[in-house]
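Supplementary Methods. Inverse-folding protocol.

Structures were first reduced to a discrete structure-token string of length 93. This string, shown here, constituted the complete conditioning input.
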């Protein structure tokens, strides 16, 4: 079994309230869960309007499946027009 933890800090330049932040994050997190079968959660910066820290965890029997999910998840986050990836960390557990 292979477990990959990805932590991403996102800058949300167009958010000026927590409500706007939720309206950007919720669809993004739902897309990641639905399309890539990963666990996703906002883990830090809960009260900051323009910053979000999310954790994405992938568990798979083969390391290559986790690596493929990592590339796909990063692509979705980086091409999202409303959130800019500022910090990315990953680790194998």
């Amino acid at each position: 079994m292979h477990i990959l933890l990805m932590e991403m800090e996102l800058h949300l330049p167009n958010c000026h309230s927590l409500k706007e932040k939720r309206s950007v994050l919720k669809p993004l997190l739902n897309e990641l869960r639905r399309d890539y079968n990963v666990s996703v959660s906002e883990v830090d910066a809960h009260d900051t309007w323009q910053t979000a820290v999310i954790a994405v965890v992938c568990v798979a029997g083969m390391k290559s499946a986790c690596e493929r999910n990592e590339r796909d998840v990063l692509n979705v986050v980086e091409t999202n027009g409303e959130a800019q990836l500022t910090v990315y960390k990953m680790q194998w557990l």
